[in-house]
Amino acid sequence: xxxxxxxxxxxxxxxxxxxxxxxxxxxxxxxxxxxxxxxxxxxxxxxxxxxxxxxxxxxxxxxxxxxxxxxxxxxxxxxxxxxxxxxxxxxxxxxxxxxxxxxxxxxxxxxxxxxxxxxxxxxxxxxxxxxxxxxxxxxxxxxxxxxxxxxxxxxxxxxxxxxxxxxxxxxxxxxxxxxxxx
Length: 182
Description:
The chain is an alpha+beta fold. It has one domain (37-181). The protein contains 5 helices and 6 strands; from the N terminus they run ααβββαββααβ. It has helices spanning 2-18, 30-45, 92-123, 160-166, 170-176, and strands at 54-55, 60-64, 68-76, 132-139, 153-159, 178-181. Strands 1, 2, 3, 4, 5 and 6 form a 6-stranded mixed beta sheet that branches. Helix 2 runs antiparallel to helix 3 (92-123), helix 3 crosses helix 4 and helix 4 runs antiparallel to helix 5 (170-176). The longest helix has 32 residues, at 92-123. Residues 6-22 have low confidence and may be disordered.
C-alpha cells in the first residue's frame, strides 16, 4: 500500500515536476534521508513507552523534483492482539478495547507527525524552501478490527519555509500544515 501511495503521489506531481526542468536540482543525499527515517521511526516508538505502537517496516523517503520530500511509513497504534495457541479467539471485548485504544491515540499521532515534520524540515538543508515536506502514515489493521471512525492513512504536509517559520510555535504550526485523512 505504501508503494502505491508513493506512486500515486509521483504520478500526480509529474506535471509539476516536469515544469521545473532546467531549474536547480536539490542534492539530498541518501544518508540524510536515512537519518530522517530513523528519527521518524524512533519518534513514533517513543510516543507511549508503557504500551508502544508498532512501527511496521521502516519509514521510506523520496525526493520529487518540484514538489519536495515525501516520507512514508506504517504503524500499528495498538499492537499485541492476534490469535495464538494461548489466545485462540478474538473476543468482542478484544475488538472493543483495541478500537478504543486506537481512537484515543489518533490525536497524539497527529501532533507527533507535525513535530516530526518540523524536525525533518530542519534536517533537509538542501531542500528548496518553497518545496513541500510530506509525511504519510498508513495505519495497520487486523482483519477482525473495528475500523469505524479511523482513517486508513494520515498525510501531513507543508512547505519547508512554513515549517521552519512555525518551529515550536504550536499555533503557527497548526496553521501551516495541511492534514488529510483517507
